[in-house]
Write a structure and sequence with these properties.
Elements lengths: L2 E3 L1 E4 L17 H14 L3 E4 L12 H14 L4 E4 L21 E5 L3 E2 L4 E2 L3 H13 L3 E6 L3 H11 L8 E6 L9 H14 L4 E6 L4 H11 L2 E4 L6 E3 L2 E2 L3 H12 L4 E3 L2 H8 L6
Parallel strand pairs: 1-14, 2-3, 2-11, 3-4, 4-5, 5-8, 8-9, 9-10, 10-11
Antiparallel strand pairs: 6-7, 12-13
Helix pairs in contact: 1-2, 1-7, 6-7
Bound molecules: magnesium ion (MG).
Length: 277
Amino acid sequence: MSEACIITVAITGAVPRKEDNPAVPVTPPEQIESTHEAYEAGASLVHIHVRNEDQSPGSDPEKFAEIQEGVMKHCPGMIIQFSTGGRGRELSQRGAMLGLQPDMASLATGSVNFPTSIYENPPDFVDQLASTMLQYDIKPEIEIFDVAMLYNAASLVRRNLLATPVHVQFVLGIPNALPARRSLLEFLISELHDVLPDATWTAAGVARHQYTVNEWCLELGGHCRTGLEDNIKYDRDRLASSNAELVTKIVEVAGEFGRRPATPQEARQILGLRMAA
Ligand code: MG
């Protein structure tokens, strides 16, 4: 009996532009269409950023609402996760769309250096975002960009700002942050089991590390994340033609690891989310 794997598709992100890969969806209609293709390919969770007209990172709650409505209509049951990530956005804008009550939202539990900037998540800001998510019954995906963030998540639980079971994502391969090393991932999983025993986990590998990390997750019992946000290429020699193509790459190999893509209903059960209406 194979074990279900939640495949997250991170469709857009803050960085890649159409000039880098024309398949990057940047308008809400493009984002809904790209999500639908990925859903048909086997993704059960979509991670969403919005963009401004010039493709810079956006924060317009109306765009989040438009994508949320389109995904709910065309991708029944799919888990919708909004990004509260920082690139190009003021702290005050980063939780501005949480009133839309997506199923999930990302929550980084500390600050870290990115390639050319600081990803700022001051302690009081983390507490405030966590508290808002609790208030709206939004399950956070705890983003672990550096090791301390794992223990900070356990601290949120102790302080009743984060409900259990917790879901975490280890982000590997961003220059200046955690490297994509299997030994490190194994250490992080071991520590997670120690400090948050009932937590579920996934990992994201950035750029050329994406598929390598997907295989580690399939083998080590985690869930998977792919998508053009993290990596615009299919392999070393060509650009990915769509988000769906990257999802398919995982689906095709999952069986070799005794895994299969989770249905949206299974994904909701695994994460303890309410079933979609
Ligand atoms: Mg993101």
